[in-house]
UniProtKB/TrEMBL annotation:
Domain of life: Bacteria
Full protein name: RteC protein
Lineage, highest ranks first: Bacteria, Pseudomonadati, Bacteroidota, Flavobacteriia, Flavobacteriales
Provenance organism: Epilithonimonas hominis
Length: 81
C-alpha cells in the first residue's frame, strides 16, 4: 500500500506542478487540478478495495496521515476557486 500511495502522490504532485507552469487561465487550471485530485483519490480507493490493508495499523496510518495529504490539496484548490 505504501508503495502505491507514494507513487500516486508523486504522480499527483508532478501533474499539479506541470499545470502550475503551463496553464494560462487560472480558473481552468484550478478546475483541472481538482479533477486530477479526485481521480487520484478514486485510484487510491480502487486499490484499497482490491488489496485491502495488511493490518489495522496500516489502515489507521493511511486514514490518519496519508489520505489527509491528498484531501488537503482538494480542500485548498476548492477554497481558492
Amino acid at each position: 500500500m505504501n508503495k502505491f500511495y507514494t507513487q500516486t502522490l508523486f504522480k499527483l504532485e508532478t501533474e499539479i506542478d506541470k499545470l502550475e507552469i503551463e496553464a494560462d487561465c487560472p480558473i481552468q487550471r484550478i478546475e483541472t487540478v481538482i479533477n486530477i485530485i479526485i481521480e487520484c483519490l478514486s485510484e487510491l480507493k480502487k486499490n484499497i478495495l482490491k488489496s485491502g490493508f495488511k493490518n489495522t495499523e496500516e489502515e489507521i496510518h493511511f486514514f490518519k496521515h496519508q489520505k489527509p495529504v491528498i484531501v488537503s490539496k482538494l480542500i485548498y484548490y476548492n477554497a481558492i476557486l
